[in-house]
Known about the structure:
Helices cover 52% and strands 10% of the residues.
Amino acid sequence: MAGDRIPVLVGPTAVGKTAVALALADRWPLEVISADSRQVYRRLDIGTAKPTKKERAKAAHHGLDLVDPGTRYSAGHFARDATTWINEVRGRDQLPIVVGGTGLYVRALAEGLFREPALDAGRRRRLDAYTARLEPLELVRWAGRLDDGFRGGGRQRAARAIEVALLTGRPLSHWQRAAREGGTIEPWYIVLTMPRAVLHARIARRAVEMVQRGLIEEVASVLADGYRPGTAGLDGVGIREAVECLHGVRPRPTVAEAIATGTRQYAKRQQTWFRHQLRGPVLTLDATRPPERLAADIADAWERTRG
């Protein structure tokens, strides 16, 4: 390895990150550190597009199936866990490679985030129950009032900003500025891109496959065990549309298209983030080419970094 440098493979959803990582596993003795905020949730395999058992058998994966739906798992928590996984992988003389599409997870690992102050567990549970009842726009509005550094995001990010502000007396942005730690890794970014039309076609195809494979039934099984819609892990694209179908709000034939629409919007946000937020060397590759070709280019470029 080039010192402590670690490959970090990123890109929008459905661009083919897993396929490229597995192609690299044919070249390197590697283990994957998954940086995906949705795949940390157990049982939601189809809805979060987790690597299959066959794919995980080809290369060990860390960061999957960590918590039950409804449980918060923050970027700071990921950074601490990922640091442990990386050290363990290196201890086995393997190369850790970070793979994922959650920009905040990548940033937390590469640049560091604050260490969360101790929060009163009882007050936290009561606050979680309260924010779970709020509409998304109301959550975002409260987050902006409590933290002038809040820059938007989904339901979970807004709830997190509210929680930290109310339970610590200071906004999340304050803690991030005042207590930012050094990053754990020296990242070497590989960004996968492809023309919008090609990515959109992949997204549409995957949405159809998810429904065909049993997405709605998977979500129904989770809800049947008492997990509430809209809580952590059950509030993302794909899961949300399945819940609407199960509650009679959305006809089943429209679920795949609704998922594709939401995923296209999410992919656009991911692309914007990776285009502007990465700090460090970046190798950008056209992911319309076969994964094996991309892996060869990545391996060649990696060797040059060691020279």
